[in-house]
Design brief:
Elements: E1 2-3, H1 16-25, H2 31-51, E2 58-59, H3 67-74, H4 83-87, H5 94-103, E3 105-107, E4 110-112, E5 117-119, E6 126-128, E7 131-132, H6 144-156, E8 161-165, H7 167-172, E9 175-176, H8 187-203, E10 208-212, H9 222-238, E11 243-247, H10 257-262, E12 267-271, H11 278-282, E13 291-297, H12 307-321, E14 326-330, H13 352-355, H14 361-377, H15 380-395, H16 402-409, H17 422-433, H18 450-460, H19 466-487, E15 491-492, H20 504-509, E16 511-514, E17 521-524, E18 527-529, E19 533-539, H21 546-553, E20 559-560, E21 562-565, H22 567-572, E22 575-576, H23 582-602, E23 607-611, H24 626-641, E24 649-654, H25 663-669, E25 673-676, H26 684-692, E26 697-700, H27 713-726, H28 745-764
Parallel strand pairs: 1-14, 2-8, 7-9, 8-10, 10-11, 11-12, 12-13, 13-14, 15-20, 19-22, 21-23, 23-24, 24-25, 25-26
Antiparallel strand pairs: 3-4, 5-6, 16-19, 17-18
Length: 767
Amino acid sequence: MLTHNLGYPRIGSQRELKKASEKYWSGQLTLAELQATARRIAQHNWQLQQEAGLDLIPCNDFSYYDQVLDTSLMVGAIPRRYTPVLSENPQNTALDLYFAMARGYQRNGLDVTAMEMTKWFDTNYHYLVPEFTADQEFRLFSEHIFEQFIHARNTLNTTPKPVLLGPVSYLLLGKEKGEGFHRIELLKQLLPVYVEVLTRLHQYGATWVQLDEPYLALDLTAAEKEAYLFAYAKLARSCPGLKLLVATYFEGLRDNAALAVSLPISALHVDLVRAPEQLAAVLPLVPQWLSLSLGVVDGRNIWKNDYQASLVLIEKAVAALGTERVLLAPSCSLLHSPCDLDLETNDATLTPEIKNWLAFAKQKLREVGELRQIADHGDQNLLHQNQQALESRRKSDRIHRPHIKERTAAVTEADARRRSSFAVRQALQQAQLRLPLFPTTTIGSFPQTEDIRQLRARFKKGELTAEQYNEALQNATVDVIRWQEEVGLDVLVHGEFERNDMVEYFGELLDGFAFTKNGWVQSYGSRCVKPPILYGDIHRPADMTVAWSTFAQALTRRYVKGMLTGPVTILQWSFVRDDQPRATTALQIALAIREEVQALEKAGIQLIQIDEPAIREGLPLRHSDWPAYLAWAVRAFRVAASGVRDETQIHTHMCYSEFNEILPAIAELDADVITMETSRSQMELLAAFADFQYPNQIGPGVYDIHSPRVPSTEEMVGLLEKAQALLPAENLWVNPDCGLKTRKWPETEAALRNMVQAARQVRAGKR
């Protein structure tokens, strides 16, 4: 059996790419130095996979920012607004154009907004959404893929496997800019570029090329199915000597199985972690020319593989197809896994017992190799070691707590309902809070400067006492409260300087979580997160946020929001246990958050925000599975939020996802105020909320915090005018798209001053 990998983390085991990219953007690093860092990371990844014994090693899985944006640049799908980035500044390179598309561009009189960003299927990874027009033209623009192939070939002294986003999924991941056409109609114009790319790769010596087509695991229209048949017939005819491997992942093929196996390709990859049951359905359909790649090692979670369970699947495939037509691989790209478990040393929470249950990207490569060794040679020692680790986890008393399970089972429907309807609550809250029309606020976090990060690092190293650390954080909180008062924000936040991450912070204060020191994964661009490991039953031993919220509230007469992360987001953004239903785990977290909400209310905090940016992200890929997920996800939020008086205003925040199709579920959350990302899409989302007649209050983001550009007052006034044309003025809030943690202070100050001024102008027009 051949072994291969679909992709490897590109951030570097010490986040080298993040650090180099941010220095390049700030002018502290040259282009040559950035490219040298990128080459070192890619070369290290290739060599690591070669040492693991993989037969087919991926290349072109490395990206400076995002693989979908890479594809847009490769095929020349560059929106016209970015043309001046190169034409008006000869010093700019194609990489500067690339970063302008990702982050926006504001320099030398040129002001260009970034491309829209949204979630990559049901992951916490974000991609840049391609933009297509009816007269869209495609041409080979970037040759990055050829440079990567040649570099990998020379490094490895063997032939690597280039990875491409497939043409049909690429189009479906995009958006139409304009009416009167569907983006899938652009396939005929796009395919010649793919043919040119594949032809040149073959000329350079490529034998296998991986084409990622995750949309094959989604619900497809008749036109989209026809597009697959048309696209791969053309690619196969144009490149007859090249072996094409089409990769699907994140879900089973289901009704698309017959379509997928009929494509004129050499191999099909299926995700047997998310959908092991699909193997029985796919095997009888596989034609004689087709090999099957089995995704048996979980590319998205960190638990050790169950070799015995994987071997059952492997043996079924070998019995049906023969050894030579079976390939072994992780379920999906290892982009979603931390780099190396061996880097985790001397961590009090990641005990040797827990560490023995885990596998990161490097270890997952080894698991693929060991599975082949057991399947080919019957290595019982490897199998026995694996089963011992799994048995240790099953029996551990760290995991199961009967009293928590009993409490979770006792939750009633009354626990998931506010006392009164929103209309009643809104009147009571208006009478108590007395906020103006278009009240201004932020989403929660303020910039975590180098001083704050160094402060945290020194505290963790023992260089500061707890008293010294808290005093410094209190000083930062005082400063940010005074600054918000001076700018004129209506509802303030305490800045969250004590928090490293919106999920990790709460995980550290809840029982049932473990943590890594180097378990970073990419969220978008240079943004990396370190998900906690949710391994056991969840319990809240003490208050988590009350002290900071009450400290901040005591500093001002304006309202300060209590800031919490919601149960579904904590679930989604953790490496979650796989030994019980996710719904059960979410409800355990919800009960812990409910206790914190009630503690905040008791302490006098009258506005409490429970962030749920991941609720759309967790939506299953198949529509038929939506109702069950939405039922338990909405219930978890409502359990967390419903234990308070009518006068206490509950906020929630969502961002960077398509919400149109789940508006009834969002309304079912029954949050008094929802804030969300809308600036990159120019308030596009609000039309759906207006058509739905969404009853509660909304804060559509008017400031894109994922870009360093500063929007003008006029720009934000325009967005707010679009908003009030769709929704009642008394139901609108004014806020940025998301938290400001990753931004710099100068741009934050300028943008928020403009935002407050925009709200005042629109408010004055309503008098």
